[in-house]
Amino acid sequence: MTQLVSLIGAPTDIGAGAKGSRMGPEALRVADFAATLESHGLQVEDRGNLAGPANPWQPPDGGYRHLQQVVEWNRLVHEAVLAELRLGRLPILMGGDHCLGLGSISAVARHCREAGKKLRVLWLDAHADFNTNELTPSGNIHGMPVACLCGYGPKELIEIGGQVPAVNPKWIRQIGIRSVDPGEKRFVHQVGLEVFDMRYIDEMGMRHTMELALATMDDNTHLHVSFDVDFLDADIAPGVGTTVPGGPTYREAQLCMEMIADTGRLASLDVMEINPALDVRNRTAILAVDMIESLFGKSTLMRR
């Protein structure tokens, strides 16, 4: 059966510390995202861009920057992603900054509750995004979505999915992490989040990492991938707001994506934090599209 895919643009940098990720959806379109997916036999509908509040670019208030606007954007994302899932389609959220992962994943969790499915979330990122307003050095909410999903955050954000917490931390696997704030580090440990940081990948290899991250899934598991493009090494993906050196190489990242594809269970996807203002000739969006091709089964040889 042909897989039905919906592209949803969320052009905002409302939760970020640098301007520019609002242009991410257009950068992906310029990189021929839809046509590339269609070349792999997918039926793709581009639903256009969501229209939310502008970025007022204000300082933090109570440890949060732009809380009300972030809430509004995440509600829009939640409704859009949930609508596509209820139609039996695979939603791809084109960000925008990673605070929107809250709206997207809370929608996926809600859909799983409705459909009686189990959920596994792979969070591919340089950052754990597990800050709270008490721990954050910046107040930027793109550093908080995983904490909010797990029930730690302002009432308006943690309740978006209709249940608190929206997800159990045990359903999440974080991969590629290499930048965690001091207070956040203790909090991640306390909550028991499963994190495969870059040291783990260096020591054990990407294959072993992904085998563990994908273990114990069955036919009733909905697999969601939240792909922050700063997951990739900054040398190959310069167009992101918060580059951190020492990320996965091109081949390590491809293996990660290919092993996800091999499960056949990918059911929703976020592509976040592409910032064309910091990029070189759209290189990062082109690379992201290349990686997502592998998520949908591109491989060098025919594989069983």
TrEMBL record:
Enzyme Commission no: 3.5.3.1
Cofactor(s) the record lists: Mn(2+)
Family: Belongs to the arginase family.
Cofactor: how and how many bound: Binds 2 manganese ions per subunit.
Binding site for Mn(2+): H98, D125, H127, D129, D228, D230
Keywords carried by this UniProt record: Arginine metabolism, Hydrolase, Manganese, Metal-binding
PANTHER family: ARGINASE (PTHR43782:SF3)
Protein's UniProt name: Arginase
GO terms assigned for molecular function: arginase activity; manganese ion binding
Reactions the enzyme catalyzes: L-arginine + H2O = urea + L-ornithine
Any Gene Ontology biological process: arginine metabolic process
